[in-house]
């Protein structure tokens, strides 16, 4: 919503509803904290990767980065997710690289493909945790999203934020994009801003592309070998993807921005381009590979995360995780 990023008349008109939303959410959180509403403590440490605002902020690349970093430290990692957009016949569901994204959701399937980690999805996070631990040997669990899912106890919280949009107009839903007020950031362990630095940053994430992958043949091509094309994106901030391609010297004759988790079909994509290369994100590609055409390419990105304190805060983050795993093994 454009008015979420300005304090327009519409935002002020909706502010009474935001106050009601905030009051209900605060009461609910307090009931969990006081033990009046039951919570679930997983038998392994839980790391939340979430955000304060609605919409895509770059959580999935952070989850992939975190899984890879922890594996390098010799840890076995599993991932749980709500599985937004999935339409499985039953839950919880164990997701693999071969799972149909219609059943498993685009982000869980992407995480499974990129990392090979065990991934379980369910709106009931306890069910997801129990299936995950039944199916895989894990030292710890990463929860993709769920910062406000207080029914699940957590040991460490990482917030991911779009650096440009930040916290919008600072209002909670529906007057603004926030699920909780900015003061909530004081209680989290680490804040990663995607695409730049702002006043909340502990570290800055840049998403780095290296090549394009053909959906039909699997061919890898350097991005500098393309001069023009068409681009589509169904992510939280499609313009970021389009700008990335243009900054690499690819002239985009047309761009198509869709809502996050947008489902796609062959007819829709064929109408975009039959001759020029059609570029899409890796997240979108998992939903399109079954009917891919020869001119369709996806652009995988790797998260490069720069600590703003010469490595001290990232080192402290992983030291916390080491202590958590040590406690779980005691």
From TrEMBL:
InterPro entries (UniProt xref): LpxK, P-loop_NTPase
Residues in coiled coil: none
Major enzyme class: transferase
EC number, as in UniProt: 2.7.1.130
GO-annotated biological processes: lipid A biosynthetic process; lipopolysaccharide core region biosynthetic process
Catalytic reaction(s) noted: a lipid A disaccharide + ATP = a lipid IVA + ADP + H(+)
Alphabetic keyword roster: ATP-binding, Kinase, Lipid A biosynthesis, Lipid biosynthesis, Lipid metabolism, Nucleotide-binding, Transferase
CC per GO annotation: plasma membrane
Domain of life of the source: Bacteria
Biochemical pathway: Glycolipid biosynthesis; lipid IV(A) biosynthesis; lipid IV(A) from (3R)-3-hydroxytetradecanoyl-[acyl-carrier-protein] and UDP-N-acetyl-alpha-D-glucosamine: step 6/6
Binding site for ATP: 53-60
MF terms in GO: ATP binding; lipid-A 4'-kinase activity
SUPFAM superfamilies in the cross-refs: P-loop containing nucleoside triphosphate hydrolases
Name of a matching Pfam family: LpxK
Purpose: Transfers the gamma-phosphate of ATP to the 4'-position of a tetraacyldisaccharide 1-phosphate intermediate (termed DS-1-P) to form tetraacyldisaccharide 1,4'-bis-phosphate (lipid IVA).
PANTHER family cross-referenced by the UniProt entry: TETRAACYLDISACCHARIDE 4'-KINASE, TETRAACYLDISACCHARIDE 4'-KINASE, MITOCHONDRIAL-RELATED
Assigned protein family: Belongs to the LpxK family.
Protein name: Tetraacyldisaccharide 4'-kinase
């Amino acid at each position: 919503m454009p008015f979420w990023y300005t304090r327009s008349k519409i935002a002020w008109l909706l502010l009474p509803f935001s106050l009601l939303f905030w009051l209900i959410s605060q009461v609910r959180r307090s009931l969990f904290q006081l033990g009046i509403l039951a919570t679930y403590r997983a038998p392994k440490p839980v790391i939340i990767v979430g955000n304060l605002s609605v919409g895509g902020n770059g959580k999935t690349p952070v989850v992939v980065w975190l899984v890879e970093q922890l594996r390098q430290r010799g840890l076995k990692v599993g991932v749980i997710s709500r599985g937004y957009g999935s339409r499985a016949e039953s839950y919880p569901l164990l997701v693999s690289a071969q799972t149909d994204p219609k059943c498993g959701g685009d982000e869980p399937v992407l995480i499974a493909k990129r990392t090979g980690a065990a991934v379980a999805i369910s709106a009931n996070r306890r069910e997801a945790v129990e299936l995950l631990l039944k199916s895989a040997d894990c030292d710890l669990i990463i929860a993709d999203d769920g910062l406000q899912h207080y029914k699940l106890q957590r040991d460490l919280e990482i917030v991911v934020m779009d650096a440009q949009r930040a916290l919008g107009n600072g209002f909670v839903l529906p007057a603004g994009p926030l699920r909780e007020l900015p003061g909530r950031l004081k209680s989290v362990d680490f804040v990663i801003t995607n695409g730049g630095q702002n006043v909340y940053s502990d570290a800055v994430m840049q998403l780095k592309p290296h090549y394009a992958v053909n959906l039909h043949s699997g061919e890898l091509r350097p991005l500098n070998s393309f001069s023009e094309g068409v681009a589509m994106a169904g992510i939280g901030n499609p313009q970021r993807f389009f700008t990335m391609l243009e900054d690499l010297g690819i002239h985009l004759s047309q761009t198509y921005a869709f809502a996050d988790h947008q489902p796609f079909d062959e007819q829709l994509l064929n109408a975009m381009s039959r001759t020029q290369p059609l570029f899409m994100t890796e997240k979108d590609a998992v939903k399109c590979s079954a009917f891919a055409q020869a001119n369709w390419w996806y652009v995988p990105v790797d998260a490069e995360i720069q600590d703003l304190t010469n490595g001290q805060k990232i080192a402290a983050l992983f030291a916390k995780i080491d202590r958590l795993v040590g406690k779980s093994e005691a």
